Amino acid sequence: MMIAEHSVDRAFNLNAGIADENLQALVVLGRSLLRLPTDPVVPTSAMALLLGVPELAAALTSDQPREGLCTLHETQRFLDCRPDTPSVRKAITLKVNGSSDVAQYNVTLPETGEAMETRLRYVPKETVRATKAPHFHGRLCSDGALRLQTLPLSAARLGEYVALAGDANPIHVDRTAAKHAGFEDVIAPGMMLCILAEMACCKAMQIARMEEVRARFLSPALAGQPVTMIFAPTSGGPRAKMRVFVVGPREELHAIVDFFSARF
Question: What is the pTM of this model?
């Protein structure tokens, strides 16, 4: 879909590093929810916490959907991100492309080549209420595929993540706002699902860092319910790919996350 109604380039020179205490808190949160025996690595997708930096957050929230629409996270991409790099001042470029129903944000760090791409969709609440979650089919992965179930994603745990990420969308923490937008309850941020999937994948496959992460968000994960990560290796060679399906308790498909690494 073309989204060329407006395009704005914005450049910043700011502290691009993520506070160590926030990364550590994210690791602790992930370990607890995934019930891991030891701390997971800081995932590539933890670069999402950079969007909470005030200067970037203000720019991102300046583009709001028109009255009657809510914001849904559609896709996400991380390329060669190193969120645990020590905090230094570096250039950040933000490019915003948008239309009446879609927005795309591209955040790049030119000096290091790190990049994030976020695509949002603006939809009416009637569409949200009417949309049915796709069902996960076993044929999407091999028999005996590894599964890892989280603890229930309680509203309190969602609040912990939102506080770390600086996510301003009220549908993740405010039940009234979530219901007004067409959801049954508050929902987990897509970035949070992506981060948990990467932590689980790195731990299960003993990988230190992913080179690239691509996620598609297909249905809301409601507060109070667990999600299950289902692992499906899809290719080998010098740049291996692992696909993780994020599935709800009724086998509803919440997200598909593809991870690329030098090897598995």
Answer: 0.90
